[in-house]
Amino acid sequence: MAQKVLRLSPHRLNLYRQCPRRYHYQYVENLGRLYAKPRAYFSFGSALHRALRDFYRLGGPFRRPVEDLLALYHAAWQGAGFPSPESEAEARREGEEILRTYHAKHKHINSRTIFVERQPECPLTPHLRLFGQLDRLDLTAEGEYEVVDYKSGRHQDESHRIQLLIYGYLVRQTYALFQAPLNLTIYYLRDNYPQAVVPMPGEEERVLDEVKAVGEEILTAQHFPAQPGPLCATCDFNVICPDSAFRPGDEPLEPVPF
Hints:
Layout: E1 6-8, H1 10-18, H2 20-28, H3 32-35, H4 40-58, H5 66-76, H6 85-106, E2 112-118, E3 121-125, E4 128-131, E5 134-139, E6 145-151, H7 158-174, E7 182-188, E8 193-196, H8 203-220
Parallel strand pairs: 1-4, 6-7
Antiparallel strand pairs: 2-5, 3-4, 5-6, 7-8
Helix pairs in contact: 1-2, 4-5, 4-6, 5-6, 7-8
């Protein structure tokens, strides 16, 4: 009997590293559709991402006014998961200010957008495929390609760097950009701050080796242990996980985990 092929993304890799049990519930038992809860930070981030996606399809800040961007933002807003109408209104205003600031910073930059929101995928081993959800690929005025990934929170961690290194590998493999200069940028929207990710010698190879090791671990796993801790409070599966540190009746503060 042929061994199944596992698909891993940076998100799935990070989820498994945080808690194998949560990964199991989400991607092995496929229980997400039954237990997923609306989250304010997902609503907020989704509206920003969708607005920027559609705006760059229209030409982006160099070619279109900020009013077009704001109209797309308000059309994308859903507002699920907020504890009150006041908190939703405050978040919506904050998102509008973020996009105004973003447009002002980028309206003089004449880069050409190659695509928005693509999902490149390639084999890593005979039993493992690597994929990712890319926000944007640009060709700059200097003739260099740039992968841009938006983050709607202020939190910066090592998983973001690993994510961009994987995206760089996927872009080169999928779109045959083996020799072209390729820049990797994490754009923290709340801070209006682009953080360049410059791979160190051998770093991409080490990341890919780790992905292979995690993939093999998942494929051969007989048990997916829980890692109880603060993240249990916002886990969709805390109501069914016997090892959850979250207990019914607890009311966690709304986090910003990205």
